[in-house]
Amino acid sequence: MRKPQKRDSTVTREKAEAASSFMKSLANPNRLMIACALLDGERSVGDLETDLGLRQPSLSQQLAELRESGIVEARREAKQVFYRISDQRAVALLATLHQIFCGEMPDLTSAVPAPQATPARRKFTEAAMFARVEPGGRSAL
């Protein structure tokens, strides 16, 4: 009978600490409510304040903590600030929590914006051409 391999406890410890830190970011009931509201997509601070019944100072404090932990990101449009979830791990965790505690899987289509496609690189098929500027302002190829 083969003996099971011993796991590297430092790697496991590091991953456990990272997971613990990540979950602590969502462990506050107000932060959890905010993050769950953002599963539906980007929301303004005013909308979050009204819909969640949180007072602006408390809401701003919790949004700042979520922003510092990298779970949400903000964008400003004139005088309004909009927030959205920026971490795919948060979407997965919140969806699981929603399913366990609310009994249904949320619609996640607008939770995290699709990554922007990187522009295609142009392929150059011809040799490079350089111009030489001659005295008097004339150029020669």
Automatic annotation (TrEMBL):
Q: Keywords, A to Z?
A: DNA-binding, Transcription, Transcription regulation
Q: Provide an example Pfam family for this protein.
A: HTH_5
Q: Which GO terms describe its molecular function?
A: DNA binding; DNA-binding transcription factor activity
| CDD domains tied to this protein | HTH_ARSR
Q: Which InterPro entries match?
A: ArsR-like_HTH, HTH_ArsR_DNA-bd_dom, Metal_resp_trans_reg, WH-like_DNA-bd_sf, WH_DNA-bd_sf
- Tell me the superkingdom of the source: Bacteria
PROSITE patterns in alphabetical order: HTH_ARSR_2
Q: Which residues form the HTH arsR-type domain?
A: 11-105
Transmembrane stretches in the record are: none
Which NCBIfam families does the UniProt entry name for this protein?
A: HTH_metalloreg (NF033788)
Q: Which PANTHER family match?
A: ARSENICAL RESISTANCE OPERON REPRESSOR ARSR-RELATED
What's the protein name?
A: DNA-binding transcriptional regulator, ArsR family
Q: Which organism is it from?
A: Bradyrhizobium lablabi
